[in-house]
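$ fold --in a.seq
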Amino acid sequence: MFKYINRYALFLILVFCISCGQNQTAGKKIIINSENKGVITAHGPKWITRNIIQDRKGNIWIAAFDGIFRYDGNSFTNITSKVSSARFFSVLEDKKGNLWFGSIGSGVYYYDGKSFTNFTTGDGLINNRVSCIYEDKAGNIWFGTENGASCYDGKSFRNYRLNGSVNSIIEDKTGKFWFATTGNTFVYDGKAFTVFTHDVKPFTNVRSIIEDKKGNTWLGGPDGLWRYDGSTFTNFTQKFVGDIIEDKKGNIWTSSESANSPAWDGSKTGNIQAWALTRYEGSSLSDKKPTVTEVTNKGMIFGILEDDKGSIWFGAFDGMHRYDGKTITDFKSKDGQK
């Protein structure tokens, strides 16, 4: 079954690789006491940092391979140091103010500020390697995993098996869900999954999807940075793009292959020697040549965040960094390094 949209030949192909199931959940509860309230440190994570968010109180939460860290503006606390030795990949604050932490191999940890609850495949989660977490408009929590997605409604999981690890999940303004995987990119209307394509070619191995304030969909991956307005595709770069965010001013920030990076071998694995934190000026996005600024480049950049003061935070192989518009600060020591 095919659907043709305008002259761009966008085909949405029905996918038959979905399997659903519901399981009652319990989870393993871990009560916080004087021994596992976390460890206050003079520094942030020193290992791979994959995801950064800011909660409603202004705290910065960091998912890293050496734990989940909370930064209150003065000091860091490794929240999970006494709870789990897992490597963490994703973090979400839900609408109720609770935290969710996705790990590599140990499932999901739910934290209400008083106790942790660990959900794994034994409780209905589709896979214990959780790469992304998303809350939809109805308050359901979605988990992107190594072999599909799980939707948790507070009582049970509904699982969707897809042909690849799920890198990113969003719900768009029309209520449709987008799933970026290491295979194809899928759109789910509540009834069927379809493959999202451009000129009959599927978008594969997409690393990040966002919807901007105008309702445009942005996709980043081995084929570069793309914007889709519902009928027209615009390509902004063909260099590899990982994470994408839109800031308060409408600028688009990406982690991507640097313009100064040596040409890659064509494998499209994302193993790029030099990555950049790149800003596309919002006021120029309609121009033939938008204004693009590379702020910094490192080995790899992950998990971009704009905080309530307008600073940009990002993760890297060596921890967390913050760009205030002038300087870049890391948090590997008490005072940071500039």
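$ fold --in b.seq
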Amino acid sequence: MVRKILWGLMALTPVALIARFVLHLDPTTLFILSALALIPLAWLIGEATEHAAEHTGPGIGGFLNASFGNAPELIIALFAVADGLPGVVRGSLTGSVVSNILLVLGAAMIAGGDGKVDTRSLRWQLVSVFGAVVLLLVVSIPSWNGGSRERHNLFLLSIPISLILLAAYVVITVRNLRIHRATERAEPAEHAWTLRKSIVLLCGATLATALVSETLVHSLEHFGHAVGLNEFFIAVVIVAIVGNAAEHGGAIVIAKGGNTTLATEIAITSSMQVAVFVVPAVCLLSWIVGRGLPLSFRAIEIATMAAAALFATIVVWDGRSRRWEGFLLIGVYGLAVVAYYFA
């Protein structure tokens, strides 16, 4: 019954788009419609990924989910760059890294309960997040000194940092895929969709998620002002959670089905991809769609990304997922949200 309802809710996607582009409804209504439309799309991405993982194994399945789930974030970030909102872009990217590691991983652990996690892959990826944070300090620290350097200089400094991060992403991805390909057995169950059908639905759901997410972000500023939230908080919390809707829904659905290995892989891989791929990609593409975006993150953004990676490393170190650890991660995320509010 629930599956039928979710399939029926797919109709909310064209409804939200028609409401914006044809009916031109008010931003608050668009925000609500878009948020509701993302729920079934997130479920579909999770469902298609789980079926794809029947053929590829959980490691590669997690990589597919994170890749398709992060596509909307890249698109949203470029739209924000084009609108001249660099603070919103950096805030949303920070929030994405932090919410994936703490909120998505924590929710998946709560939903899945006791289970296994692939420490070989997860430890390596969390170390990569730490490394990305260290590299971002090279650009961020000069920006904390009261603007001692101009924006253009910070952008020029960001270019080599971005190239290093992209090179690291290629190395990490190739290494992880080789590990999973060599060690995971892919024996699909009888009920599993074909790999082709899974990939087609993943592509379609990702495209729809990108369109709906852009519509939601378009209405976020008005919604934030209506409820009295500042631009930074909207970006680092609301935009990040919306952009990660696919990972949130997918990881929880998969964990609830008992596949904690795939669910935790989705959360950590998605965070690593944002830190090591989406962040430098947005920087390098920013000069095409608008002014160059320097990777000059706030001190609180750097601190929370590092803290999130640290706590996640602690809970996955023993190779087990436990429900109380999920509550711990969500509690830490709650503290980060409070810090963002006062920042």
